[in-house]
Amino acid sequence: MPRSRKKSTLEELPLDLKIDILRSLGSIYDLESLGLTCRTFYNICKSPQCTATAYRQLLIHGDHGELLRGVAVLRAYGRDDQLKLLQDASGFPDNNPTDNTEYFYKLLSYQRTVRWFTNRFFEAMADKYGDVPPNSANSKDSKSSKRFIPSRSESQRLDNAFLIFWVLAETIYLFENRKPHGTIDGSHIDEELFANTDRYTFVYILLWQILGTSDGLKLQLSVDFSVICSVARFLSGSTTPMALRYADTLSHEKVAAISSKLGCPDIYNRQGISNLLTWNLGLDGLRKFLEEKDETIQASVIGKYYNRPLEPRFEVDDEEPFKFFISCFYSLIDGVWIYMRDHSGYLGNIHWRPLWRESGIINLLLVPPWNQADEFDIDAAFCDDERLQRLGYFRPRISVDGEDTDQSSLEEKMKTDLVCHCKEDWGCWD
User: Fold this and answer.
1) F-box domain: from which residue to which, for each copy (predicted)?
2) Tell me, what DSSP letter sits at residue 140?
3) Side-chain-facing half-sphere of 110: CA atoms under 13 Å
4) In the structure, what pLDDT confidence band is assigned to residue 107 with cuts at 50, 70 and 90?
5) Tens-place pLDDT, residues 129-170
């Protein structure tokens, strides 16, 4: 006869104390860890009825609450038409109280979507930064044997980056669909600071109004630009196989039409399609697209947006269609960096992790990560110090000055890294 399992001390606590424990947690990651302590808390953490109060508190006041609400505001304004004027966002979510079940579960679904992308990111990075399990029977040289088990801070870092990227995507969706500029108060923005006063001003006003504070007109964002850059590249790589597969089915005439507008169809397939899908679908829609196993359905989704650069409704300078359709997110990341660099108080914790593959290298605080020396491993920025040091990275010396350094924008860096694989009859400008 099997022996009965002895209950743990946590399991023996009264129910009201268990609820108090849930309410006192500081983050969603703590809640997930609590669910692994014993069977009782596992069942509680899987029960929507028991965890509703705890999840509501964490989502509204805890980890990434502001960014989750920012996504909700932009979608309500741009897609759901719940907000008639963007100024109404200052009262949001007052119009959707925190005890509104539908609103609460919407935020929760956004958080789960972000976690889905975060987990896929870790899987993609396992080969480069992961560890071989100590009891693995596979050879240490086997790529398939590596696993990436993220720490709490690494998960938070990626969740934050994906949410910021989602906010940027929703903002581009508003720009694409031309929400009236007259409903946006841009009096606090220095338009001369940005090269493209139309798109950039539109984006920064939205970011400030949704994620900012009236105290000094600061943008309340914690941004690791290296991680944001890695997220942008990861999302492009996720959709590239489907886009290339779709492009192979197109006639010469359709590809030539894209070539006449954007110059390089291959770069459009690898980068532009990802941008179009991201800002038109949002990350939740992009997740459904990537999970779709029917290639014909994926092809129909890509086909819906493939010819967007040829549509006349876009009021984009004909000399710079590349910037909008292929590198819009990179140019936005450039612009956010400029904004936060030129406003005091933002650069205090940027680039402090040891991302250098050689010792004795100087880290320039006022220089964006993509313009640091070649020994700076920008893709490793999502890793914790402990992991980086274990992998052989070195902590840099810090310098505030950045004279005589590479002044290229992230957009320019991205262009130089792209390699054209256009077919001879595609009419590529390159």
Assistant:
1) 11-48
2) T
3) 30
4) confident
5) 988 777 655 545 554 578 899 998 899 899 999 999 999 999
Residue of higher predicted confidence among 72 and 91: 72
Please tell me the distance from the alpha carbon of residue 298 to that of residue 290, in angstroms, as a whole number: 8
Distance CA 242, CA 263 (A): 21
Question: Which amino acid type is present at position 197?
Answer: T
Reading the block at residue 296, the tokens are 């014909």
pLDDT of residue 4 exceeding 80, the answer is no
Spatial separation of the C-alpha atoms in residues 131 and 383, rounded to whole Å: 12
- How many angstroms from the chain centroid is the CA of residue 319? 28
Q: Report CA Rg, the chain.
A: 23
Give percent of the chain with pLDDT exceeding 90.
23
CA distance 119 to 112: 10
Give the C-alpha separation, 167 to 162, whole Å.
Answer: 9
Catalogue the long-range contacts made by 252-259 (C-beta closer than 8 Å, 24 or more residues apart).
252/425, 252/426, 254/307, 255/426, 255/427, 256/426, 256/427, 257/307, 257/310, 258/306, 258/307, 258/309, 258/310, 259/422, 259/426, 259/427, 259/428, 259/429
pLDDT at 384 over 80: yes
Provide the Cα torsion 53, 161, 36, 15; round to 10°.
-10
Type of residue numbered 329: F
Which structure tokens are listed for 169? 């995507």
Q: 92 Cβ partners below 8 Å, 6+ apart?
A: 69, 72, 73, 76, 83
Q: pLDDT digits over 5-51, tens only?
A: 555 666 677 777 776 777 666 666 677 777 777 777 777 777 766 66
Report for 130-139, 321-330, 369-378: range of highest mean pLDDT = 369-378
Collapse the DSSP code of 147 into the 3-class scheme (helix H, G, I; strand E, B; otherwise coil) and give the result. strand
What is Dmax (Cα atoms) for the chain? 80
pTM of the model: 0.84
How buried is 342 (Cβ within 10 angstroms: 0-12 exposed, 13-18 middle, 19+ buried)? exposed
Question: Which are the contacts of 206, defined by CB distance < 8 A and separation ≥ 6?
Answer: 74, 86, 171, 174, 184
Amino acid identity, residue 287?
Answer: R
